Amino acid sequence: xxxxxxxxxxxxxxxxxxxxxxxxxxxxxxxxxxxxxxxxxxxxxxxxxxxxxxxxxxxxxxxxxxxxxxxxxxxxxxxxxxxxxxxxxxxxxxxxxxxxxxxxxxxxxxxxxxxxxxxxxxxxxxxxxxxxxxxxxxxxxxxxxxxxxxxxxxxxxxxxxxxxxxxxxxxxxxxxxxxxxxxxxxxxxxxxxxxxxxxxxxxxxxxxxxxxxxxxxxxxxxxxxxxxxxxx
Length: 232
Ligand code: XBP
Ligand code: MG
What we know:
- The protein is globular, with a radius of gyration of 18 Å.
- Helix 3 packs across helix 4 and helix 4 runs parallel beside helix 6.
- The chain is built from nine helices and six strands.
- It is 44% helix and 11% strand.
- It is of the alpha/beta class.
- The protein has two domains: 3-14 and 97-228, HAD superfamily/HAD-like (Rossmann fold); 16-91, Putative phosphatase, domain 2 (DNA polymerase, domain 1).
- The longest helix is centred in the middle third of the chain and has 21 residues, at 71-91.
- Strand 2 (114-118), helix 6 (123-134) and strand 3 (144-146) form a beta-alpha-beta unit.
- The site of xylulose-1,5-bisphosphate has 17 residues, from helix 1.
């Protein structure tokens, strides 16, 4: 196994409630009476990508909203405001890495294992989370950082994992992926990558068919090393 490819939201850190609150702050800031509670957000997480999620909410859950003419620009602007709120929240240090994650990153890196990121979240979100958690030079741990709109189709499509493997110059059988959600697992499996799942309160009832193993979290990192065969 040459490379570990990490999902971000829900995997590196339990971020989705931070995203949800940031969406709500953005809605309020531009005078929309939209408010995504946990139950609604749970449904909306079916769609990855914040801009795509806003459009999904408007199309499938909202009645009587008159879309502005430049709807795409409206969504992009709304999402940019949300990203400011979310990165501010991250920089306040409110969202730590999940148990075992920092140790896994530092020990695997020290053992010469290639590390990479494959996420549907916005690049600024990755930087803000990892600058706080790993320091200003966080990027040196990762040989590839696949995030945001760099690929045509977000998870569950495999595009982002293909992009990362291409960047790393590795084959799927040389990698393992770490994910938290059904969409993420479908994406990495469609790319042919052996995938381990750590669940969270948004994903615990999802289906993880095909996962190599499912964990509550990586607090017992030695067990994860044993199950996954990672040698550090
Ligand atoms: C999770 C997502 C993201 C976040 C919101 O990404 O689907 O869309 O929910 O972030 P992953 P943005 O699990 O692949 O890390 O608003 O920046 O999309
Ligand atoms: Mg995720």
